[in-house]
Amino acid sequence: MPLHSTRVSRRHALAGLGAGALGAWWPSLVWAQGDKAVKFILPVSAGSGVDAIVRGAGPALGKALNVAVVVENQPGAGGVVGTQAIVKAAPDGSTLGVVSNNHVIYPSVLRSVPFDPVADITPITIIANSPMVLVVNPKLPAKDMKELVALLKANPGKYNYASSGNGTILHLAAEMFKGVTGTHVTHIPYRGTGPMMADIISGQIEMGVIAMPAVHSHIKSGALRAICVASPKRSSGAPDVPTAAEQGFPAYVVEGWSAAVGLKGLSPDLVKRLHQGFATAFASPEVREAMDKQGNTIVLSTPEQAQAHFKSELAKYAAIVKRAGITPQ
């Protein structure tokens, strides 16, 4: 792509610099000379909540950063494939990533992870929180939490739920539902949100827990029936859908989040510029409207707050995985 050839020419132009000087100055040099594209790797499939957020904000983000924003989905292994591409990218700010809860779940559900989810990235910002919604195929004879729980308890093991992969946040969110309600539903893992959602809509699978940005249009069209949102309050993306707490299950609370990151070692100046770009883009009326329609709550944390969030979430999900009895694979 053009950006690659630009980097190559600069590499030749800067060939006389020592390795130490190149490492220290490379990010600021690239941005100062006005690169025309920044690629955002999403370690999730098209149609996911993170995908909806980034694509909804992409034009405004490109305008704020004065670059073209290229979005590239790299799902696989629950998100490890895409995240590995992020942490191995060139340290010039031309390749960044947007990750979700999955980023801090890997160490608890996988025996071996080819990167450190905290040490090998540079946090830029926690972008937004997204409510999780429990959905079912409309043919399932249950219209609310009590009816669904009664149906599942009367038929233990008969029904299946889909997730975007073993150990993903959608897997853990469904396991938390099972734990809170004392029900038994069989897990069917998929390679991403899009495929799992397609099979719930077609009736191949009965239910699943999905981030609101990915599913709100299907709820609105009637392709999927929303049973509850697993948030402390109702979602703007589907205001008619009651929370689990409203239906007598206050312990069922789980939210998704998205965060912008780069690989470790990004210069403070570049991180500051990127953070300002996100702040500008997500303050724009069109992005705020898009996020509200998707049901997201914009956060825009500082890089320091994002770093602390990663560490606390790492510990939180380790405890959730342990309680759920999920064996690392």
From TrEMBL:
It holds the Pfam family TctC. Coiled coil: none annotated. PROSITE patterns: TAT. It comes from the Bacteria. InterPro entries: BUG, Bug_dom1, TAT_signal. Transmembrane segments: none annotated. Gene3D superfamilies: Bordetella uptake gene, domain 1, Periplasmic binding protein-like II. Belongs to the UPF0065 (bug) family. This is Bug family tripartite tricarboxylate transporter substrate binding protein. It comes from Ottowia flava.
